[in-house]
Structure formats: structure tokens, C-alpha cells
Design brief:
The structure is a single chain. By secondary structure, this protein is mainly alpha-helical. It has a domain at about 5-50. The chain has helices spanning about 5-10, 15-25, 45-50; strands at about 30-35, 40. The chain has a two-stranded antiparallel sheet. A hairpin with a 5-residue loop joins strand 1 and strand 2. The chain is elongated. The N and C termini lie far apart (about 35 Å).
Amino acid sequence: MFLTKDEMATLTGYERPAAQSRWLRENSFPFILGGDGHPKVLHQVVISRLGGHYEPKKSPELRLK
């Protein structure tokens, strides 16, 4: 659901949570701060911001005949 710490560092170019939060604000990425002080960004936000199309995985459906 959320980017990992490594993915966040790759996206922002920063390791420190404060610097990551600043970069996210400057680039208009919506995020929340977790209880650990690290910013949390949804994968779907990054995919859509970079022009991709996000389709959540569908769970199997039971078909009764």
C-alpha cells in the first residue's frame, strides 16, 4: 500500500524523513506522517502522478451455477 523506506529515498533523493517531507510538499505529493515520523505515500499516488494507470488487484470471485 505505502512506499517502502527505500522506495521513498529513491523517489525523493533523500534519506532523512524531514527532507523527504519537504520534497513531497514542494512537489505536491499528498502524504501523511506516521507515528514513527516518516512520511507515508501510497503507491497509487506515485503511479498516477507519473502518468501510469493504477488498477488494484482483483480478488477472485466465486461463481455458482
